[in-house]
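A further point concerns the way the authors explain their paired sequence and structure data. Nothing conveys this as quickly as seeing an actual entry. An entry of this sort, consisting of the sequence and the corresponding backbone structure tokens, reads as follows:
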Amino acid sequence: MSNLAMLLICLVAGILLARAGRVSDNAHQALNAVIVHLALPAVTLRTLHGFAFDAEHLLPVLMPWALFAIGAILFWITGRALGLTRAQVGALTLVGGFGNTSFVGLPMIETLQGREGLALGLLIDQLGSYLALSTLGVSAAAWYATGPRVGVREMARRIITFPPVIALMLALALRPLPLAPALDQALARIGDTLAPLALLSVGM
């Protein structure tokens, strides 16, 4: 209950700060940068470093891919039936095909399932939602848009240089080695900022 109260407080605080003009219009972008480059990588590295992977985790990871594929087909059929423009179908495909599994999903998983559920949530977010968005999502955006398309090399560069993905690869590579207690505690303290910062950003 305390976690849920914290999430609601941060969400409402973000809304009030933005509406009262106490923060700049792009203040959420600074919070997003801290989350993506610091808080989320810290949580990913610490949580997945000791996570016991199993074949049963494959299905949840594949769900974002399946949902996007199903949504893309349905929106294409709907667009043809309703006479929607190419841009409208593309927008529906992207907005309806992906969820905010990082900024909203991870705090909610931690609230509802506790820290033990966070590891699977991170796998779904990094290997599911993010990779699907960075590949299928970018390809769909390029297909429906009139601008230049993103090449495979640029797509791969964006994926492997995304800080949480780097943290995921480090967590897997360092699994045979225990994290130093000081490092583990530092990552825990930094990672604890993920949920409040994410909901503040969403509120703003």
In short: The two ends are 23 Å apart (CA to CA). The CA atoms of residues 4 and 193 lie 15 Å apart. The mean pLDDT is 90. Residues 118-144 form the longest helix (27 residues).
